[in-house]
What does this fold into?
Amino acid sequence: MKMRTAALDIGTVRIGIAISNPEGTIALAHSTLHLNQCPNPFEEIAGILAENDIHQIVVGWPLELDGSEGPAIKRTRQFLKKLKAACPDIKIFRQDERLTSSQAENALQEMETRGSHKKDVVDAMAATLILQTYLDRIY
It folds into this structure.
């Protein structure tokens, strides 16, 4: 049974969010959360998941380019522990996210995206790439 899935590109400043179409086959950019402007990102994410009837998420797993685990993995694990406390029934899957931000930036350059919101778009696009890679892999 196919279902909607969300993806998170967890950064230190922003979190890019993507959600799939209802059939669970196509990733769509959703939004970007600014951690300095969001008092409780876990509550905000829980609301997005509930609003869109999402019961599973894919998280970009920030491996180093050589495949090793670096400091970003520790931050991601800590974030996921808190998210799981806020959303105890959510299933969490990991997806290698190496190079997704640079792929997103390249795509936006080709589309000539400019301005102060470009980083927001990059983060949401990176989450979309993470989600589409996951969806393509499982379906």
